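Hey,

The postdoc asked me to send both predictions to you directly instead of through the lab channel. I've kept everything plain text so nothing gets mangled by the mail client. Protein one:
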Amino acid sequence: MATIKLSERLRGMIQKHIVNDSAQKAAVSAVREARQEHNKTFYEAWYTKEERELLAFLPRNWVKNNQYAEIFLENDHDWDKCDFGEEKPLDYNGGNRFSVPKDHPFSIRYYQLKRKLEEAETELGVLELKVKGVLSNFTTVAALQKGWSEIEPYIQAALTANGMDGGKVYLPAIPVAELNDILKLPKQGEQQ
């Protein structure tokens, strides 16, 4: 098997495979999903059932359909995007901007999830740096396989995705004659 140099690209691909399969990545995804589900509750919290039914009944040009609302929470000093995950009819006059009091149950839960997501993303960032640091200690795939054998499946996935398999590099095949023409090599038996 040929020695494969551990290039930055290959290191990055291995790192991506490791991190994407990590518990930290799963935690970030879980918090994002929880936040998405909570964002959907904003619509129900803001409009009464009767208002929602009326908005759904009105012609499309009378209401504004949006997949998100821009909310101004009193704890922040900026507008935040509240994604519903699907289009909802919003009051045409009010558009999709809402000011929400900081003691509103939606705001309280929103900030809990926002902090939890920031913490999970920070942990994921730290993991990425740690993995990158360990991978930078190796210069070849063979040395990495010997020094950190537990990540063999990630190495193989990165090699396959990078067009390598089992140490063999697959190059696009072209006929020898065409390659000779590209290189302007004389045909066998011809003099220059």
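Protein two:
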Amino acid sequence: MFAPFCKIAPLFLALLVSSALLPVDAHAEEKPLRVLRVKLGEGKQDSFVAGLKRFSEAEGFAIRVVDYAPMGGKGIFIQMFRHEVKIYGANPHDPRDFGLSFFESSKALVSNDSLDVLTSKLTSHIGDASSSVIIK
């Protein structure tokens, strides 16, 4: 009875989670303040997620991590929220190529200096898992 649902459940979950990551308010066209492209070392995905959790705890972010497995892959959605900044991340195509995008979460302006500090702290927390970090 549940066998057909079990086959589509991972796809359904991935679609549900991806729709939750999309903004649905007036800021739907909002461009990220900053984007990080992180190349993970071989087998370092768990270490990377642990680093993101340490960063979120140290910097006062709420964090949500959702695993999904499209086409048998190992994908992750990340959401981190704080009063002035929200960070969304995913690796939809390659488990070793991760993108993190920073957005304003309030009307208050986020300075480049505060983004520089957050970026530096985040990269220090994930440093042992990444082979490279590109800041855009």
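Summary for protein two, as requested: Residues 5-9, 11-27 have pLDDT under 50 and may be disordered.

Thanks,
C.
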